[in-house]
Design a protein that fits this description.
The chain has 123 residues and is of the alpha+beta class. Helices cover 24% and strands 50% of the residues. It has a single domain, classed as Nuclear Transport Factor 2, Chain: A, CATH 3.10.450.50.
Length: 123
């Protein structure tokens, strides 16, 4: 049975949760790019994963909770919350809306828009 794009996105996130960055990269085309709303523009997936590796350097665990997800044949758009437990025991969350584009069954583009959740709001 062929895996759907929604399942592939979930598998990609599980790879990141397991700190399996090479496994996550293997789910992407060689030309895959990532764009975040940090003003840096598009960057190759390997550079983006290297930055993410640095970001989670002091993280004991991370978990993605998908709030909602929409898919078409070669696209997934979702809202999720990344829960982080830091090495010192502190906790943090990152809210994001993310668009995944597929080509030939692999992730070819990711656009991530991180946003602040107003205080007292629970998704």
């Amino acid at each position: 049975m062929e895996q759907g794009v929604s399942d592939q996105v979930n598998q990609f996130l599980r790879s990141l949760e397991a700190f399996d960055f090479s496994g996550a990269q293997a789910m992407c085309t060689g030309a895959a790019t990532v764009r975040q709303n940090d003003g840096k523009g598009e960057q190759p997936i390997d550079e983006s994963l290297d930055q993410f590796k640095s970001f989670v350097g002091n993280v004991d665990s991370l978990r993605y909770d998908v709030i909602r997800q929409f898919q078409s044949q070669d696209e997934v758009f979702q809202q999720h919350v990344l829960h982080l437990v830091m090495s010192d025991g502190s906790r943090s969350t990152v809210h994001a809306a993310v668009y995944f584009r597929f080509e030939g069954g692999l992730i070819d583009g990711i656009e991530e828009y991180v946003y602040a959740e107003p205080a007292g709001t629970t998704p």
